[in-house]
Amino acid sequence: MSDDLNLPPSSEPSSPTTNRWPGRFLLLAAVCIVGLYFYNTRTVPAAFPWHEDYEKALVAASEKKQLVLLAFHAEWCGVCKQMDRDVFARTDVAQILADWVPVRIDTDKHEPLARQYGIVSLPTFYVLSPQGKALLRFEGGLPADEFIKFLRAGEDAYRPNATQPN
After folding, report:
1. Of 58, 68, 70, 80, which is the active-site residue?
2. Catalytic status, residue 77
3. CATH code of 139's domain
4. What is the pLDDT of residues 6-61, one digit of tens each?
5. pLDDT band per the 50, 70, 90 thresholds, residue 165
6. Of the listed 77, 103, 127, 148, which one is catalytic?
7. Range(s) of the domain holding residue 81
8. How far is CA 109 from CA 31, 59, 112, 118, in A?
9. 80 labelled catalytic
């Protein structure tokens, strides 16, 4: 037992904070990761009103002779939330959609409609004519400038048919 009491001096400093740095760094990294997660999954309101009722949206589009943006999403979809935050909250996107009927469909709540449109990934976007005919489709997320190009392509796809009778 006397050998235990006569230990050779250690070459490491005896400061009690010496070994705390790795633990503090890991704690700080974990806090940052959790913070980024909550920041990226926060809800951001759209800069325009969404219709939630598919049938009513088609009736409104037909009456107003406006294109329909049909957006399929789900509450658990991270890319959908990113689109909410980075695209649908923007005023330039809202300005274009002012002359559209944007309708948003939760695939978990409206599975038959999702099957009707062949939804296999989220988000999925359709541009529909005022009569409900699919003109354009895109799956996945897009930055705002690319989403605006998608909307403009939908307008261009409809324009040649605009003079035809309903």
Report:
1. 80
2. yes
3. 3.40.30.10
4. 655 555 555 555 577 777 777 777 766 766 666 655 566 788 999 999 999 999 99
5. very low
6. 77
7. 54-161
8. 34, 21, 9, 15
9. yes
